[in-house]
Amino acid sequence: MNSISKSSIAKVLILLIFIVYSCKMDKLMLPTITNTFVINVSSTTAASGATVTNDGGAPVLSKGVCWNTSVDPTVENSKTIESEGTGSFTSNITKLIPNTLYYLRAYATNSVGIAYADQESFTTSSGALSETVTDVEGNIYNAITIGNQTWMKENLKTTKYRNYTDIPLVTDVEDWFLLTTPGYCWYNNNSDNKDTDGALYNWYAVDAGINGDKNICPLGWHVPSDTEWSILMAYLGGDSVAVGKLKEIGNVHWDNPNTDATNESGFTALPSGARDYGAAFFGSGRYGYWWSSTAIAVGGAWSRYVGFDGSGGSRSASLNQCGFSVRCLKDN
Alpha helices, DSSP H only, in 200-288? Predict the structure, then answer.
């Protein structure tokens, strides 16, 4: 009799546990996904992402985007897999077919199942190069292929890293001079210079070892190394010959003399000036300076400059506190 009672009690307990667990499971939902986007579409690549705003009551196990040439793609088709948890994410899409219409949906999974965002569509270009690239703030840049490299034709102007983290704006002279962490400014602390000249960044903002492994360039792009700058200059005929091929034609932005300017390369170098290690602004209309990603010693890195009088093009050893322009180079 006691044995039967214990068995019955055990069954009842198991049933109660199952009912409680089932009720708890009933309260869980699929994750919520918003703000799906598709940018930087080329012939074979694109970038996409979204924001997981709610985990549905259970941890998000994975998220990403999936795509196909048929409507309503699922994770059984091509997909990316990003990190766990809620929040915004960006995915790099590769191995696409040129001149093809694709359908894409962002997704997120938890213990309940798979949630899909509203469908987006995009068409890859027929050429080998996307004509524009967009950063995380929506700034659009033209691109140009020079030899085997693809460069932005404008200076970078973003105030955020690729992961949406803010780059600190530093205007004060003493604060800039004492910086050992990332910072940016506008020439003469005037944001009206943004559209034409872009921002001036110290090297701490560029160096992944100092900035927390964050990338200042859009997805699929990077700050060129000193070697990659050398490849560009060699392709254009060497430092002294390349200077004119880099510079914008005419004297709209450049001070006289500027008779050597041809912009034959399409690089469209502008004399955006710089901020020196002592925080003084100089060189607007006369010089353009650009960082490389290559350090030369503790406290310094290689840069490149182009002068109004035909000088420049060669490497310059610069202190990390200097504020220079950035041109991004497309990943291979």
Answer: 203-206, 208-211, 226-235, 239-246
**What's the pLDDT tens digit per position in 260-307?**
888 888 899 999 999 998 999 999 999 999 999 999 988 899 999 999
Q: Are residues 65 and 88 in the same domain?
A: yes
Domain span including residue 101: 32-130
DSSP string covering 159-195, please? SB-TTSPBPPB---HHHHHH--S--EE-GGG-GGGHH
- My answer on whether 105 and 177 are in the same domain is no
Instruction: Establish whether the linkage from the previous residue to 257 is cis, with ω within 30° of 0.
Output: yes
The CA distance from 147 to 231, in Å, is 9
CATH of the domain at 51: 2.60.40.10
Domain final residue, candidates 108, 130, 152:
130
Asked if residue 178 has pLDDT above 90, the reply is yes
End-to-end CA distance of the chain: 78
- DSSP label at residue 225: P
What residues contact residue 313 under an 8 Å CB cut-off, 6+ apart?
233, 239, 240, 242, 243, 246, 304, 305, 306
